[in-house]
Structure formats: C-alpha cells, structure tokens
Amino acid sequence: MKDESFGAIIIFIKNNKILFLIVQHKVAGHWSFPKGHKEGRESDLEAAKREVEEEVGIKDFQLIDDIYFIEKYTIKSKKEGIEKTVKYYLAKTKSQNIILQEEEIKDAKWLEFEDAYNLLSFKEAKNLLEKVKEYIDYKEII
User: Fold this and answer.
1) Cα distance between residue 75 and residue 98, in whole Å
2) Where are the domains of the chain?
3) Could you tell me the fold of the domain covering 2-139?
4) Does the pTM exceed 0.70?
5) d(CA 43, CA 26)
6) Nearest Cα to 105, choosing from 2, 12, 3, 7?
7) Are strands 17-25 and 2-14 parallel, antiparallel or unpaired?
8) Per-residue pLDDT of the chain (142 residues; tens, 9 = 90+)
C-alpha cells in the first residue's frame, strides 16, 4: 500500500542563525515537520500550505527557490507495510508565532540545526534535515 503526504520545512532567521520549526505529533508522539494529506483536488503545494496553516497557524511563509525534498519510509502495520512518501517544500517566515492544532500537534519548537537534529525522532527525518542544511549552506540563504 502507498501513502503520500505534503508539508513544509519552515525556517526563521534570527540574529544570522537559522531556526527550524519541528512539531511533535500528538498520537504517535514523534518529532518531525508539519505535513498531511491532500484534500479534494489540491495541488501538492496547496496541500502543504494548508497543512502548515492548520497544524501551526503559519500563513505568511515564502517558498525558497521553489525546491522540495522527498522523505520515504515504510510504516509497519499488522496487515501490511505502508510505503510512505512525503514531499516537503522549503520555506521561510518572518514570524515565530505559532498556533498549535491541538487535535494533531502536541508541541512545536524553533531550534537551530543541531538541536532540531537531535530532537527529530526518526533517521529519515534527520537525513532530510541534513539535506536541507546542505542546500541552505550552498545557497548561502542567510
């Protein structure tokens, strides 16, 4: 079985340091990035924007270079494995204000790379963050 989600890796630049937004999902308790499924005929980007707005209340973010990163992993269930693909857009915002969607998100934090990396729950999310950091450093985003 296959499953797709869409989200964003949101950054905030403060005092020439990049902070990454990571969220703790309520049901499973793991730390990753805001994401979710498409609704209706949404495009990938529309779904990502809506999910970010719903989960953390951020509306005013700008895409960086129209780039995205793909995360793939398998969710093991009792019946069969689910092949999960998540498409994350890279974006920045000018505000650290967040409003949690209490039904789905338990907590959220703005963290520098090393702290975010250490808090992320899964190896795939850590690898993804490393790729994003490499891209940001290469593009000299600050």
Assistant:
1) 29
2) 2-139
3) Nucleoside Triphosphate Pyrophosphohydrolase (3.90.79)
4) yes
5) 26
6) 7
7) antiparallel
8) 899 999 999 999 999 999 999 999 998 899 999 999 999 999 999 999 999 999 999 999 999 998 999 999 988 877 788 899 999 999 999 999 999 999 999 999 999 999 999 999 999 999 999 999 999 999 988 7
